[in-house]
Structure formats: structure tokens, C-alpha cells
Amino acid sequence: MALDFKVALANLEGDEALLIELAGLFCDESAKYLLALKEAVAREDGKAIRAAAHSLKGAVSAFTAQGAFDAAAKLEKLAENGELAKVPEASAALEAEVEELRAALQGLSSSQRISDSTTVPPKRNRREP
Amino acid sequence: MKVLIADDDAVSRRLLQSALSDAGYQSIVAADGLQALCELEQPHGPRLAVLDWMMPNVDGLEVCRRIRKRVAGSSYVYIILLTSNETREEVVQGLEAGADDYLTKPFNVHELKARLRTGLRILELQDQVVSASETLRAQATHDSLTGLWNRAAILEFLENELARSLRGRHSLAAVMADLDHFKSINDTYGHLVGDVVLRDAAIRMQAAVRSYDSIGRYGGEEFLIVAPGCEIAEAGRLAERLRKAVGGKTIEIGSGVSLEVTVSLGVAATTGNASAEELLRAADNALYEAKRKGRNAVTLKPD
């Protein structure tokens, strides 16, 4: 499973509205990262591959999506070590993980947007530190 | 409390921002290391920072190093480094670059908040240390009874001003002031009344000097005024103002009793070619003359 909603939500302290907002952001940002990754792989540009994999790793970490995170970490390591021969396979695996996550998150954000037009969470009580 | 968030990934930024605003922090957001440095270098900029390690241009590690290289006196920034590479070497590298703490992505929001609270505690401790050392510095340079500079501080000021007057070829005056018959006030009314008189005379003289003059308690009932840019005649007028400020009005010592207190003053000036000792001796000799003339007087000792 690309995404465990319970785990993702628990890490956001149960803030569903935030999860939906992050999902929307992720769908936009990950499209850019994936594009950058594909171009970098085509150019066999190790540095750019590493940067794109790193960005994806950071973005998926918001959802504690372990599969996608591990795939990104693996690709980042390969690029860092200059093992470019293994990059296409690892890159494809990462793309698949990210696409799966995107699908899960897209469903979440669109279905919620229909039922609830506000995506901004109501502010909770705050305490100034 | 302001917290700087620096991460090139928009999703991570938003997550951090939301977690911090829930905890009551005011977050300031930067998308790369240069922006982060800009924010941290603002006056009254954030003192807590959560920095992503890998960022384009200037990375989190470099931000740590540059912040730690800042001049002493700027307030401490507590830095938490975010990393998704948790090898021991990298953690060590991050801490050596100047990070106070680190957090591994994917991070837990509770853990982030707890680590920020640790940072707050450290910053509070630093504030206490700074205010304690400021208090100590004030105590070390001021006379506790009158609030004027103490002997060591006013002498240091005199040395500095002498060097400046020599460089700038301008005049510098020293005025030595001594309360008249102070011993008999102490003997007649006691030391507590003596203290009231000293404090009152000090307040009056401080109000009478120019803003760029310095006045210190030189000894028991003796005061030294250092007047930069003052030639002998002008310093004489300053001394005359001081004399009138002290003697012009009686000093109330409580229970409806007032005392007539006067001061004698000796004035000397130099254009920087005299040593501090020579200038002080000249002012002291002039003071002696003023006392000899019958007190409540000003005497000038021409250069």
C-alpha cells in the first residue's frame, strides 16, 4: 500500500484538513520533481538525479509513505555513488511509488473538496510559547 | 517566539509551518539557504531555526557555519537540522557545523515540538546569563551609592579621552570637585545623612554637566568630571555651574532639616600632551587653591 492514512494522519495529529492541503501541494510539487527526475535520467546527470530523488524523499516523508521514501533514498544513494547503470530501474520503481501515492492522495483531496469546500483548517486554540 | 523554517520542498515547508503555528510559534519561511541567512541576520530576527540539510545554493550545514561565525554580541540562534540521511558521520558533521540538534525525516510532529521546547529552554538560559552579566558589568563600573561612574571607570574614561584629544588635537579638561566640610556633616549627623548628601550632590552635578561629559566618584566626597573638547575657560564655566548646582539650594536630610552644602572645584585642561597623572595633579592643586581661598569656589589651573 502506497499510503497508510491512519499513520499519515496520526503524524499530523489527526488534522484532516492539513492532510488534504498537503496532499494538494504534493500533487503539484511531485509532478515537477518527477519531470525533473525523468529529464535528469535521460541526460544521465547524476547530480540532478540525486537532487530530484532527494526532493521527492522530502516530500513523501510528510505522509510517512515508507515505500516511496525507501525508493527515493535508494535512488539518491545510487546517484550519489555514481552507479548510473542501476539508475533507470530504481528511478522507474520510484516513479511507480510516487504515482501510486499521488493517486491515493488525489482521491483524498478531490473527494474531500467536493464534500467540504474549505480546505483551510479551522484554527485550534493556540498558546504562545 | 519566531521560528525560521528553511526547506526547498513546499510540502515539508507547509507541514513544518502548520506544526509550529499549532504550537503557538510565529513561523518565517525560507525556500533556500540564502533566504534563511537573510532572515536570520535581520535585527530581531528569529532565534530558533529549523533548517533542511540539503538545499540548493547554500545548504543547511553552511547556514549553521555562517551563523556560528557571527560576531559575539549577536544573540544565539538555536538550530535544529533536518536530515533524511541519518548516518552517524553525517550527524556528527551537522553538529560540528554548529547545529544544536537534528531531526530525521520523516519526522514526527510531537518530537519536533518537544525539541523546539528544548531550544526555548536554552534560549531562556542564555537570556538569563546575558542579563546577569550586564548587571555585573554595571556593578563593576558604577558607584553603588551615587550611581555615578566609580573611580576605576572614570579614570579609564580619562585615559581614553586623553588619547583621543591627542589624536584629534583638541582640548580636554578635568574638574576635581570636593564637598566642603563633609567630615563635619558626617560627624554631626551620622553616616546615613552623609550618604544622603553625597547622593543629592551627585544627582545635582550629573544634571549640570553636558551630555558628553563624564562624572565619577573619585574618592569619599571627591568627584572627577572629564570634559572632552573643553578649554580651560569653558571648563571653568562648567565648574561654576556645578558649584551653583550643589550650593544654590539646601539639601533636605529628612525630618524637615536642610543643610547648606557647598563644593570647591579645581579645573585643569590639556591638549593631550599631559599624562592623566599630570592633569589630575594640576586639577587637584587647583582644588587645593579653591579650598585655601575659603571654599565654595572654583580655581583654574592654566595649561
Q: What would you report as the Rg of chain A, rounded to the nearest angstrom?
A: 16 Å
The tally of helices of chain A reads: 5
Report the portion of residues of chain B in β strands.
15-25%
Estimate nothing, just give the exact number of structural domains of chain A.
Answer: 1
- What is the mean pLDDT of chain A? 83
- The CATH fourth-level homologous superfamily of the largest domain in chain B: Reverse transcriptase/Diguanylate cyclase domain
Gross morphology of chain B:
elongated
Number of strands of chain B: 12
Q: Number of DSSP helices of chain B?
A: 10
Helix content of chain B: 40-55%
Q: Average pLDDT of chain B, to the nearest integer?
A: 92
CATH architecture of chain A: Up-down Bundle
N-C termini distance of chain B: 58 Å
Shape of chain A: elongated
Supply the helix-strand structural class of chain B: alpha/beta
Order of helices and strands of chain A: HHHHH
Measured as a percent range, the helix fraction of chain A is over 70%
Q: Can you tell me the CATH class of chain A?
A: Mainly Alpha
* Physical arrangement of strands within the biggest beta sheet of chain B: 2-1-3-4-5
- CATH homologous superfamily label of chain A: HPT domain
Largest sheet of chain B: 5 strands, parallel
Question: What does this molecule look like?
Answer:
- The complex is a heterodimer of chains A (129) and B (303).
- Chain A is elongated, with a radius of gyration of 16 Å.
- Chain A has one domain (3-120): HPT domain (Four Helix Bundle (Hemerythrin (Met), subunit A)), CATH 1.20.120.160.
- Chain A has 5 helices and no strands.
- Chain A is mostly helical and 129 residues long.
- The model of chain B has no long low-confidence stretch (mean pLDDT 92).
- Chain B is an alpha/beta fold.
- Chain B folds into 2 domains: 2-140, Rossmann fold; 151-301, Reverse transcriptase/Diguanylate cyclase domain (Alpha-Beta Plaits).
- Chains A and B meet through helix 2 and helix 3 of A and helix 1 and helix 5 of B.
